[in-house]
Amino acid sequence: PADPVSLQEHGLDFQRLLDASAYKETFRQDMIRWGEEKRCADPGFFCRAAVAGAAQPVWVVSDTRRLSDVEWFRDVYGDVVQTVRVVATEETRKRRNWVFVAGVDDAESECGLDQGVTFDWVITNDGDELSLDQQLETLLQALRSRL
């Protein structure tokens, strides 16, 4: 998550960081380094920021990146936490213009959850819309049943 203080400290354009432009890639490693420093000092820093002020019966916290994030949510919220992993083949990702960058795409911020987490749900998103819709409907039905 982008922290407003870090954006101001570094003079970054938040909207441009949200897209897949070269602008984001220029600052990506610096953002990762800054995030690591914050996490080392306080592993729950970004998790607390994500839930600050939330008062809904169901939250979707997207883009957790590390085992410590998942552990924080499980420690704080227990069994109500449902983890969802979205996967796509490397071939699909390349069709979507993903290009592997050493030092970035193999960093913990990108693959920290590839091992060590048993996900409650795994959703495959390889471009088959019907399959994706069916998987998401099953997930939604299961979540609704827990309310």
From TrEMBL:
- Which is an annotated Pfam family here? P-mevalo_kinase
The protein's Enzyme Commission number: 2.7.4.2
Q: What is its main location?
A: cytoplasm
Q: Name one GO cellular component term.
A: cytosol
Could you tell me which pathway this protein works in? Isoprenoid biosynthesis; isopentenyl diphosphate biosynthesis via mevalonate pathway; isopentenyl diphosphate from (R)-mevalonate: step 2/3
Organism the protein comes from: Eolophus roseicapilla (Galah cockatoo)
In alphabetical order, the GO MF annotations are: ATP binding; phosphomevalonate kinase activity
| GO BP term, pick one | isopentenyl diphosphate biosynthetic process, mevalonate pathway
Q: Which Gene3D superfamilies match?
A: P-loop containing nucleotide triphosphate hydrolases
The keyword Transit peptide appears for this protein:
no
| Name of the molecule in the record | Phosphomevalonate kinase
**Alphabetically ordered keywords of this record:** ATP-binding, Cholesterol biosynthesis, Cholesterol metabolism, Cytoplasm, Kinase, Lipid biosynthesis, Lipid metabolism, Nucleotide-binding, Steroid biosynthesis, Steroid metabolism, Sterol biosynthesis, Sterol metabolism, Transferase
PANTHER family xrefs: PHOSPHOMEVALONATE KINASE
